[in-house]
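Hi,

I'm pasting everything inline rather than attaching a file, because the server keeps stripping attachments. The sequence lines come first, and each chain or strand is labelled.
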Amino acid sequence: MASLMRLITFITDFGVQDWYVACMKGVILGLAPTVRLVDITHEIPPGDLPAGALALAAAYRHFPRRTIHVVVVDPGVGSARAALVVQTDDYCFVGPDNGVLSLALAGEHIQAIHRLERPQWFHQPVSATFHGRDVFAPVAAHLSRGVPAAEFGPAQRDFIRLDWPPVKIKGDILIGELVYFDRFGNGITNIPGQQLEARIPASVDIATRHGRRRAPLVPFFQAVPRGYTLAMIGSSGFLEIAVNGGSARQKLALRRGDRVRVRRSDP
Amino acid sequence: MASLMRLITFITDFGVQDWYVACMKGVILGLAPTVRLVDITHEIPPGDLPAGALALAAAYRHFPRRTIHVVVVDPGVGSARAALVVQTDDYCFVGPDNGVLSLALAGEHIQAIHRLERPQWFHQPVSATFHGRDVFAPVAAHLSRGVPAAEFGPAQRDFIRLDWPPVKIKGDILIGELVYFDRFGNGITNIPGQQLEARIPASVDIATRHGRRRAPLVPFFQAVPRGYTLAMIGSSGFLEIAVNGGSARQKLALRRGDRVRVRRSDP
Amino acid sequence: MASLMRLITFITDFGVQDWYVACMKGVILGLAPTVRLVDITHEIPPGDLPAGALALAAAYRHFPRRTIHVVVVDPGVGSARAALVVQTDDYCFVGPDNGVLSLALAGEHIQAIHRLERPQWFHQPVSATFHGRDVFAPVAAHLSRGVPAAEFGPAQRDFIRLDWPPVKIKGDILIGELVYFDRFGNGITNIPGQQLEARIPASVDIATRHGRRRAPLVPFFQAVPRGYTLAMIGSSGFLEIAVNGGSARQKLALRRGDRVRVRRSDP
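And the predicted assembly:
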């Protein structure tokens, strides 16, 4: 019953129309019948590593210690990319070594990184196209039962970083960009909220293909009238562009990569 | 282990592409590791209080006694709207005081209503935009562990009612309207099935922008030929407009708010 | 606690926007509070028996022995179609007798087939339109608690087969067709992988309304350059048509029913 309280979470680009996620869960529950399973999302656009990395970074810390986070956004499945288990002080991460784990790992103290290379822990036969079911799922199940990370393969010193756009600083101005749109049409940037707190009050410039817009940095939606554009530090911890009661993505015709500049206002 | 058999259900407008629902679940499982979680739906259109209220009213009674139902359709998050826990004889309801709980509560015997105002029960720091994670989720977790509703804040006498269209009665005619369309294109009205049983056999008039249609009130789809329009008392307990083997919404170009009139047929 | 380790899975065409799936789960958890629930998919297109049958056939075997698989793709609900429980050596299947179980059952050793006809096991009152909630869900719950299949109604010798296209063999050529498209746009055929292994190396002809395409049969996506068409034995065990890094469905304008021919290549 060691696994009674262990949690496994999932982030994939498998969608929910097909049976792929269920196959992973079936394999896990055959090996670890009492582990608890939580879907973070399966709606990462196919192969979209930044979206997968952001979902993991935004969600993983809200789970209890010892949770095992499995991420299968894996456009290189079947190629030579490595598969990893990363043990940190508080969590375990399982997924391909393609950068999708790297945003979350940037906030963690890493204890060990091991490649998944010992087939005795895999679901046999291992298909060439579905390592979610055949490699990542069974490894997560065995981890939940207490198998140490070192059992799955040789240690590795480092992991691949995502090609994540850096935030630039020019004097009193921070320059970032839009990296994700959520269901509500809020545009999430790569600018961490901590970098902004000393700059409030501030205003934000957004450069779209249709021109520039300026918005105030405020603490919540209702600080501007309904239908107005605002910027705020969102629940994920990053600067977001939003419209009170509407979709910033639609209203401003935002696209991923649009530049966002924050400048300190006169106080 | 007091929470082993406790259930928490979720109705939100968060969708499933993002990590918002998972953050709520992570927070809950950190506080109440053995509680069981069931999604009712996360696909309420953003801010659509009638759709959220109907989903709750249609689903809540099918869950075991002592289930805790959490509803986060909360366009006023961050404003002055109250957050509530409502204890009834059989269930516990947690959500904003904006009417989204009111259709379900109309069928319940209420024991107590308390505002969620004591921050020691919240997830800290409380964000201005995500009370699902920071207020409603932790309160539901504590409730599942036996914390009484009165611990979360002061009692309140009443709750806000949804602006739900009333059913009108003119002689032998009931007049209601379409309030929701389900996945199959069935149009659900605000007319409760109990009000119809004495009127059967009956026929139903539907007034759309394209004119009037008449349909028989029948007990199931196959009572009319394939492709024909019918009315029936649906599984949610309300009068529905449907097409056997098709989508009434598409075939009749129905819209929310279209009028529906039921009159007794010649027997 | 007999049901502690029992699993119930779900395949339906109910979608996830409405409360229908949750009502099934609520009914089950009221009867069997410790059973575990796993969604396979609720996104079967309404009434699409081949898609439901394929999802079950592709997924069911990955679950532990004694799992109860519930399938509710039931366009004939309310008509005279029978409802079944099928006990095989390893699993239990619950659903309408309309062919949706038949692809999976073709791979199972059947012990008993019983019709669901004893109302004492149903959720009362049984609606005419929602046997998922009122018949299939409570029967699955009782099965998970150890009620034998024979308790639910009279034995039946056989079950209805799906109208599934047969694979034709002409000399050295296998002729099948596209039966399903997954989220990634991979086109799954009705040709089982076992029938192909002796034919490798092979090439595959796909006949679409826009003409013929030829693709090599390879073991994984990266065996062809990015953007190229390939055929492979997919994770579901059937021959699939795919594009490395893209959607075969879109690129080749594939449709269900398009013919696929496999011929042995010169080695």
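Residues 131-144 of chain C form the longest helix (14 residues).

If the labels don't parse on your end, tell me and I'll reformat.
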